[in-house]
Amino acid sequence: MGKLVIFSAPSGSGKTTIVRELLKRFPRFEFSISATSRQPRGQEQNGVDYYFLTHEEFRARVERDEFVEWEEVYAGTCYGTLRSEMERIWSKGNIIVFDVDVMGGINLKSLFKDDACSIFIMPPSVEELERRLRGRGTDAEEVIRKRIDKAEFELSKSSQFDYTVINDDLAVAVEEAASIIENFLK
Ligand code: ADP
Ligand code: 5GP
Q: Which ligand is nearest to the CA of 176?
Protein backbone atom coordinates (compact mmCIF):
# COMPACT_ATOMS: atom_id res chain seq x y z
CA MET A 1 0.00 0.00 0.00
CA GLY A 2 1.26 3.50 -0.84
CA LYS A 3 0.51 6.95 0.51
CA LEU A 4 -2.36 9.31 -0.08
CA VAL A 5 -3.11 13.00 0.35
CA ILE A 6 -6.73 14.04 0.82
CA PHE A 7 -8.19 17.48 0.11
CA SER A 8 -11.70 18.35 1.25
CA ALA A 9 -13.59 21.64 1.42
CA PRO A 10 -16.96 23.18 0.75
CA SER A 11 -17.47 23.52 -3.01
CA GLY A 12 -16.03 26.83 -4.23
CA SER A 13 -13.24 27.06 -1.62
CA GLY A 14 -10.56 26.68 -4.29
CA LYS A 15 -9.61 23.07 -3.67
CA THR A 16 -9.38 22.13 -7.35
CA THR A 17 -7.26 25.23 -8.09
CA ILE A 18 -4.84 24.35 -5.26
CA VAL A 19 -4.64 20.67 -6.20
CA ARG A 20 -3.80 21.62 -9.81
CA GLU A 21 -0.86 23.71 -8.61
CA LEU A 22 0.40 20.93 -6.34
CA LEU A 23 0.21 18.33 -9.12
CA LYS A 24 2.72 20.46 -11.05
CA ARG A 25 5.11 20.57 -8.08
CA PHE A 26 5.10 16.97 -6.93
CA PRO A 27 5.99 14.67 -9.82
CA ARG A 28 4.83 11.50 -8.03
CA PHE A 29 1.39 12.94 -7.34
CA GLU A 30 -1.45 11.46 -9.32
CA PHE A 31 -5.04 12.66 -9.09
CA SER A 32 -7.62 10.06 -8.14
CA ILE A 33 -10.33 10.23 -10.79
CA SER A 34 -13.64 9.70 -9.03
CA ALA A 35 -16.78 8.21 -10.47
CA THR A 36 -19.90 10.40 -10.45
CA SER A 37 -23.51 10.17 -11.53
CA ARG A 38 -23.64 13.86 -12.48
CA GLN A 39 -23.38 15.24 -16.02
CA PRO A 40 -20.07 16.65 -17.31
CA ARG A 41 -19.68 20.42 -16.70
CA GLY A 42 -17.90 22.84 -19.07
CA GLN A 43 -14.82 21.22 -20.63
CA GLU A 44 -14.85 18.15 -18.38
CA GLN A 45 -13.92 14.87 -20.03
CA ASN A 46 -14.75 11.29 -19.14
CA GLY A 47 -11.70 9.46 -17.72
CA VAL A 48 -9.86 12.76 -17.13
CA ASP A 49 -11.95 14.78 -14.66
CA TYR A 50 -14.33 12.01 -13.62
CA TYR A 51 -15.61 8.66 -14.77
CA PHE A 52 -19.14 9.77 -15.68
CA LEU A 53 -21.63 6.98 -14.96
CA THR A 54 -25.39 6.78 -15.27
CA HIS A 55 -27.30 6.44 -11.99
CA GLU A 56 -27.89 2.77 -12.87
CA GLU A 57 -24.20 2.07 -13.54
CA PHE A 58 -23.21 3.82 -10.32
CA ARG A 59 -25.70 1.77 -8.29
CA ALA A 60 -24.57 -1.50 -9.93
CA ARG A 61 -20.96 -0.77 -8.99
CA VAL A 62 -21.99 -0.02 -5.41
CA GLU A 63 -23.78 -3.39 -5.32
CA ARG A 64 -20.62 -5.11 -6.58
CA ASP A 65 -18.61 -3.43 -3.77
CA GLU A 66 -16.32 -1.70 -6.28
CA PHE A 67 -16.00 1.52 -4.24
CA VAL A 68 -13.55 2.24 -1.40
CA GLU A 69 -15.96 5.01 -0.36
CA TRP A 70 -18.90 6.78 -1.94
CA GLU A 71 -21.34 9.50 -0.90
CA GLU A 72 -24.53 11.05 -2.17
CA VAL A 73 -22.81 14.44 -1.89
CA TYR A 74 -25.83 16.39 -3.17
CA ALA A 75 -29.38 15.01 -3.28
CA GLY A 76 -29.57 12.66 -6.25
CA THR A 77 -25.86 12.99 -7.16
CA CYS A 78 -23.32 10.39 -6.07
CA TYR A 79 -19.54 10.50 -6.13
CA GLY A 80 -17.12 7.74 -5.18
CA THR A 81 -13.60 6.36 -5.31
CA LEU A 82 -13.21 3.08 -7.17
CA ARG A 83 -10.83 0.46 -5.73
CA SER A 84 -9.49 -0.05 -9.27
CA GLU A 85 -8.49 3.65 -9.41
CA MET A 86 -6.39 3.42 -6.25
CA GLU A 87 -4.69 0.23 -7.50
CA ARG A 88 -4.00 1.87 -10.87
CA ILE A 89 -2.10 4.73 -9.21
CA TRP A 90 -0.27 2.75 -6.52
CA SER A 91 0.84 0.12 -9.06
CA LYS A 92 2.93 2.89 -10.68
CA GLY A 93 4.49 3.81 -7.32
CA ASN A 94 2.66 7.13 -7.27
CA ILE A 95 1.01 9.02 -4.40
CA ILE A 96 -2.76 9.35 -4.69
CA VAL A 97 -4.27 12.83 -4.43
CA PHE A 98 -7.95 12.99 -3.53
CA ASP A 99 -10.43 15.79 -4.02
CA VAL A 100 -13.43 14.47 -2.12
CA ASP A 101 -16.27 15.86 -0.06
CA VAL A 102 -15.84 16.33 3.68
CA MET A 103 -17.42 13.01 4.71
CA GLY A 104 -15.40 11.18 2.05
CA GLY A 105 -12.22 12.81 3.40
CA ILE A 106 -12.99 11.75 6.97
CA ASN A 107 -13.79 8.20 5.82
CA LEU A 108 -10.60 7.86 3.77
CA LYS A 109 -8.49 9.12 6.69
CA SER A 110 -10.06 6.59 9.05
CA LEU A 111 -9.46 3.77 6.54
CA PHE A 112 -5.82 4.60 5.71
CA LYS A 113 -4.69 6.26 8.97
CA ASP A 114 -0.98 7.16 9.00
CA ASP A 115 -0.61 6.45 5.27
CA ALA A 116 -3.01 9.36 4.69
CA CYS A 117 -2.58 13.12 5.17
CA SER A 118 -5.92 14.97 5.25
CA ILE A 119 -6.09 18.70 4.50
CA PHE A 120 -9.19 20.88 4.84
CA ILE A 121 -9.28 23.93 2.54
CA MET A 122 -11.13 26.73 4.33
CA PRO A 123 -12.66 29.71 2.48
CA PRO A 124 -12.11 33.13 4.14
CA SER A 125 -15.91 33.39 4.67
CA VAL A 126 -19.22 31.97 3.42
CA GLU A 127 -19.82 35.27 1.55
CA GLU A 128 -16.54 34.84 -0.33
CA LEU A 129 -17.43 31.21 -1.04
CA GLU A 130 -20.67 32.38 -2.65
CA ARG A 131 -18.78 34.99 -4.71
CA ARG A 132 -16.34 32.33 -5.97
CA LEU A 133 -19.12 29.91 -6.90
CA ARG A 134 -20.87 32.62 -8.90
CA GLY A 135 -17.58 33.86 -10.36
CA ARG A 136 -16.73 30.35 -11.57
CA GLY A 137 -19.80 30.60 -13.76
CA THR A 138 -20.22 26.86 -14.21
CA ASP A 139 -23.26 26.09 -12.07
CA ALA A 140 -26.96 26.90 -12.24
CA GLU A 141 -28.42 29.04 -9.46
CA GLU A 142 -30.15 26.04 -7.87
CA VAL A 143 -26.86 24.11 -7.79
CA ILE A 144 -25.07 27.09 -6.21
CA ARG A 145 -27.76 27.33 -3.51
CA LYS A 146 -27.43 23.62 -2.66
CA ARG A 147 -23.68 24.03 -2.32
CA ILE A 148 -23.90 27.08 -0.06
CA ASP A 149 -26.56 25.43 2.09
CA LYS A 150 -24.18 22.54 2.69
CA ALA A 151 -21.16 24.72 3.48
CA GLU A 152 -22.00 25.43 7.15
CA PHE A 153 -22.19 21.71 7.92
CA GLU A 154 -18.94 21.07 6.06
CA LEU A 155 -17.11 23.91 7.83
CA SER A 156 -18.13 22.39 11.18
CA LYS A 157 -16.13 19.23 10.30
CA SER A 158 -12.77 20.95 9.71
CA SER A 159 -11.35 19.86 13.09
CA GLN A 160 -11.54 16.21 11.99
CA PHE A 161 -8.78 16.83 9.44
CA ASP A 162 -5.04 16.63 10.09
CA TYR A 163 -4.55 20.21 8.82
CA THR A 164 -6.60 23.28 7.83
CA VAL A 165 -5.35 25.70 5.16
CA ILE A 166 -7.17 29.02 4.70
CA ASN A 167 -7.46 29.89 1.01
CA ASP A 168 -7.52 33.67 1.09
CA ASP A 169 -4.41 34.50 -0.94
CA LEU A 170 -4.03 31.59 -3.37
CA ALA A 171 -0.20 31.70 -3.51
CA VAL A 172 0.04 31.59 0.30
CA ALA A 173 -2.40 28.68 0.50
CA VAL A 174 -0.44 26.69 -2.11
CA GLU A 175 2.84 27.27 -0.21
CA GLU A 176 1.26 26.19 3.06
CA ALA A 177 -0.19 23.01 1.55
CA ALA A 178 3.13 22.23 -0.16
CA SER A 179 5.05 22.47 3.10
CA ILE A 180 2.52 20.23 4.93
CA ILE A 181 2.94 17.64 2.19
CA GLU A 182 6.76 17.85 2.18
CA ASN A 183 6.71 17.07 5.92
CA PHE A 184 4.28 14.19 5.44
CA LEU A 185 6.41 12.61 2.71
CA LYS A 186 9.66 12.84 4.71
P1 ADP B 1 -13.53 23.91 -5.52
O2 ADP B 1 -12.72 22.90 -6.26
O3 ADP B 1 -13.20 23.97 -4.06
O4 ADP B 1 -15.01 23.78 -5.76
P5 ADP B 1 -12.39 25.88 -7.41
O6 ADP B 1 -10.95 25.52 -7.37
O7 ADP B 1 -13.19 25.47 -8.61
O8 ADP B 1 -13.13 25.37 -6.06
O9 ADP B 1 -12.49 27.46 -7.17
C10 ADP B 1 -13.73 28.16 -7.21
C11 ADP B 1 -13.53 29.51 -7.88
O12 ADP B 1 -12.76 30.37 -7.01
C13 ADP B 1 -12.75 29.43 -9.19
O14 ADP B 1 -13.30 30.33 -10.11
C15 ADP B 1 -11.32 29.82 -8.79
O16 ADP B 1 -10.62 30.40 -9.86
C17 ADP B 1 -11.57 30.82 -7.66
N18 ADP B 1 -10.50 30.85 -6.63
C19 ADP B 1 -9.77 29.84 -6.14
N20 ADP B 1 -8.92 30.26 -5.17
C21 ADP B 1 -9.11 31.59 -5.05
C22 ADP B 1 -8.53 32.62 -4.22
N23 ADP B 1 -7.58 32.35 -3.31
N24 ADP B 1 -8.98 33.88 -4.37
C25 ADP B 1 -9.95 34.18 -5.27
N26 ADP B 1 -10.54 33.27 -6.09
C27 ADP B 1 -10.14 31.99 -5.99
P1 5GP C 1 -18.13 18.79 -8.25
O2 5GP C 1 -19.52 18.45 -8.68
O3 5GP C 1 -17.93 20.25 -7.93
O4 5GP C 1 -17.08 18.26 -9.18
O5 5GP C 1 -17.87 18.02 -6.88
C6 5GP C 1 -18.80 18.06 -5.86
C7 5GP C 1 -18.23 17.48 -4.59
O8 5GP C 1 -18.03 16.08 -4.71
C9 5GP C 1 -16.89 18.07 -4.19
O10 5GP C 1 -16.96 18.40 -2.81
C11 5GP C 1 -15.95 16.94 -4.44
O12 5GP C 1 -14.84 17.02 -3.57
C13 5GP C 1 -16.81 15.73 -4.12
N14 5GP C 1 -16.27 14.48 -4.66
C15 5GP C 1 -15.67 14.28 -5.86
N16 5GP C 1 -15.27 13.01 -5.97
C17 5GP C 1 -15.61 12.38 -4.82
C18 5GP C 1 -15.45 11.04 -4.33
O19 5GP C 1 -14.88 10.16 -4.96
N20 5GP C 1 -15.94 10.77 -3.09
C21 5GP C 1 -16.56 11.71 -2.34
N22 5GP C 1 -16.99 11.34 -1.14
N23 5GP C 1 -16.74 12.98 -2.76
C24 5GP C 1 -16.26 13.31 -3.98
A: 1
**93-152 tens-digit pLDDT:** 999 999 999 999 999 999 999 999 999 999 999 999 999 999 998 888 998 999 999 999
- pLDDT tens, position by position, 21-46: 999 999 999 999 999 999 998 899 99
Neighbours of 104 (CB within 10 A): 22
Instruction: Name the pTM for this structure.
Output: 0.94
CATH 1.20.1070.10 holds for 4-185: no
Of residues 81, 83, 131, 128, the one with CA closest to residue 101? 81
* Residue 13 in contact with ligand 1 by CB distance below 6 A: yes
| Residue 174, ligand 1, Cβ within 6 A | no
SS3 163: strand
The edge-to-edge listing of strands for the beta sheet with 67-74 is 50-52, 34-36, 77-82, 67-74
Q: Which ligand is nearest to the CA of 130?
A: 1
Cβ within 8 Å of residue 2, ≥6 positions away: 89, 90, 93, 94, 95, 96, 115
